[in-house]
Amino acid sequence: MFPIERIPGTIPTRCFGSAYRDLVWALGMSDDFSLDFEGQAVRAFANLDAGLAQVGTDKTRLISVQVYLYDVDGKKKAFDEMWAAWIGPDPDHWPMRSCVQVTFTGGNKLELLAVAVRDDPAAK
């Protein structure tokens, strides 16, 4: 049996991601809920990048990303612009993406739930 790798989290009982062979699931969210929406988005992208790197992949290998926003009507356009700058212009690197509105507590304004691939460590 192959081991499941975990990306350590800062919230008790949760990790920020998992990897099994060549599949990766990772969470991007802000680590500072006092920031405004744009500030939280910058932190979410940075934290997603860091989590993906920790298990040997990056945003160019994303398969899908589910975006959870606290205010789709008011913030999706701004998020789409930030997303485009973060993901880059190469359509070969664009994952399938959905965006839904949710209710958060504690000041959180968005979360990114990503699925990616990496080179299978068992194949080495």
Describe this structure in words.
The chain is an alpha+beta fold and 124 residues long. It has a single domain (4-119), classed as RutC-like (60s Ribosomal Protein L30, Chain: A, 2-Layer Sandwich). Helix content is 27%, strand content 32%. It has two helices and six strands. It has a six-stranded mixed sheet. A hairpin with a 2-residue loop joins strand 2 (15-20) and strand 3 (23-29). The longest helix is centred in the middle third of the chain and has 18 residues, at 37-54. The radius of gyration is 15 Å and the shape is globular. The two termini are 16 Å apart.
What is the secondary structure topology, with strand pairs?
Layout lengths: L3 E5 L6 E6 L2 E7 L7 H18 L7 E8 L2 H16 L8 E6 L8 E8 L7
Parallel strand pairs: 4-5
Antiparallel strand pairs: 1-2, 2-3, 3-6, 4-6
